[in-house]
Task: structure prediction
Amino acid sequence: MASDTLTTTAGRGRGSGSGGGSGAGPGRRRPLSGRTGLTALAVVLSVISVLPVLWMLTSSFKTRETVTDGRLIPTDFTFDNFVYVFTEVPFARYLWNSFFISAVITIAALFFHSMAAYALARLRFPGREKLFGAIFATLLVTAPVVLIPLFMVARELGLLDSYAGLIIPAIFNAFGIFLLRQFYLGLPKELEEAAVIDGCGHWRVYWNIVLPMSRPILSALAIFFFLANWNAFVWPLVATNDQDLTVVQLGIASFQTQYTSNWNYILAAATVAALPMLILFFVFQRQIVESIKTSGVK
Result:
C-alpha cells in the first residue's frame, strides 16, 4: 500500500512537471507582436525625419567655425546669425512676400476649386465627364513642361514682375479639384434635395450646406496649398527680377550663392523660414487628421 501510494504521487509529480515545462516559463521570452514591430518602425522613421530639422535648428545657433563640427549641441551658442540675417538683407520683406502670396493663392484656390468640384460632382451638363477627365489629365503634366509656355503667356499679359504674375498662375490646381470632387460625391444627396424642395437654388445649397460640411477637407487643402506656395522656387525665379518681390526661398538661395561658406547664416535663414510652417502644422494638426478620416468615410 505504501509503495503504491509513493508510485502514484511520483507519477503525479512527473505529470505536473511535464505540464509546467510545456507552458511559458518565467525565463522564456514572448515573441514580438506585429503591433510592436510597427511601433518600432514608426519610432525609427520619426527619428530619421525629425533629426535633420533638429540639426538645422541647433546649427543655426553655432558660430562659423563650429557650424560644421558635426555635433548636435552647439559648443558656442550665439544669436548673431539671426541678427545678421535680419539686418544685412531684407529678410522680413521676403517673409512678407511669401506669406501674402501664399495666403491669397490659398483663399482663391479653395473658393474656385470648391465651386468647380461641386459643379463636377452634383450638376448635370453636357461634357461633364470629359471636362473632368481633361482637368484630371493635367496631373500627369509636370511643371517644367509648361514652364516656358506659362512664361510666354504671362509676358504677353504683362504679368511679369508683379504680384499678379506670382498669384494667378498658381491658383489652378487639379489635385484640389479632384480631391474636393471625390469628397462631394460621398456627401448624402438627401440634404441637397431637401434644400431644393424648400426653394434653395444651387448657389444657396453650395454656400449654406456644402461648404459648412467641407470644413475638414478644406482645412487640409489649405495647409497643403499654403505649404506648396510658401516653398515655391522655380516660378518666382522665372517670373520676377524685382528685389521687392523676392520670396523667402529665393532669399535663402541668394544667401547661399553670396555666402557659400557661411553655413551658419544659411541655416539661420532656413530655420526662420521653416518655423511658420511647423507652427501652422501643429496648430491645425487636428483638422488635418479629421479631414483624412472624414474623406475616407463613404
About this structure: Residues 5-25 have pLDDT under 50 and may be disordered.
